[in-house]
Specification:
The protein has 158 residues and is of the alpha/beta class. The chain contains five helices and six strands, in the order E-H-E-E-H-E-H-H-H-E-E. It has two domains: 36 residues, no CATH class; 109 residues, Rossmann fold. It has a four-stranded mixed β-sheet. Bound molecules: S-adenosylmethionine (SAM). The site of S-adenosylmethionine has 13 residues, from strand 1.
Length: 158
């Protein structure tokens, strides 16, 4: 199956990074990657087969708006796949990570610690996640944890 992908991220650097990855995987012709906001997509209602999100729910300011937008652009019977680390800190060996820093990166790490205090990210219980998903109109959220990762899937009514 030849899949076509539209991808958005508000960060221009992330989009450039994704475009380089698409080019090295030789799929640039099938991946339209642009600066954008998942809470306000420019695509028409009922035009997409699937919405996929990786590593993002914990930093979204308004996850319900993003879910609502995904629901809007999906075709009836289309689905959403969401993947997020269960706990970011469980994914890495902190000592090994710090040992890999180049000298200039220690300053960035300092900024990261300040940023993490100001905006520590958001976690949701299973019940909170199910309520948000059902409020948007997806009737059947399936949420499961596999190793350090949470997977959530839901389908728009046909
Ligand atoms: C941890 S990164 C994950 C990046 C990429 N999805 C991946 O899996 O490699 C989280 C990303 O979410 C993006 N993000 C934050 N708010 C967003 C929004 N409203 N819509 C789309 N992306 C958003 C950030 O710019 C950041 O690049």
């Amino acid at each position: 199956m030849r899949v076509r992908v539209d991808g958005v991220d508000p960060s221009r650097r992330l989009i450039e990074f994704a475009r380089r990855n698409a080019a090295s995987a030789r799929v640039s012709g099938r991946a339209r990657l642009e600066v954008g906001d998942a809470a306000g997509l420019r695509w028409l209602e009922g035009t997409r087969d699937r919405a996929i999100s990786t590593g993002t729910p914990h930093i979204l300011r308004d996850p319900v708006r993003v879910l609502r937008e995904s629901h809007r652009v999906l075709k009836p019977g289309g689905d959403v796949w969401i993947y997020n680390q269960a706990r970011v800190s469980s994914q890495i060996d902190v000592q090994k990570w710090k040992g890999s820093f180049a000298s200039g990166e220690w300053r960035l790490y300092g900024l990261f610690l300040i940023f993490a205090k100001v905006d520590p990210g958001r976690g949701y219980s299973r019940g909170q996640a199910v309520s948000m998903i059902e409020a948007v109109g997806f009737p059947d959220p399936r949420i499961r944890q596999r190793k350090g990762e949470i997977e959530a899937r839901m389908t728009k009514r046909a």
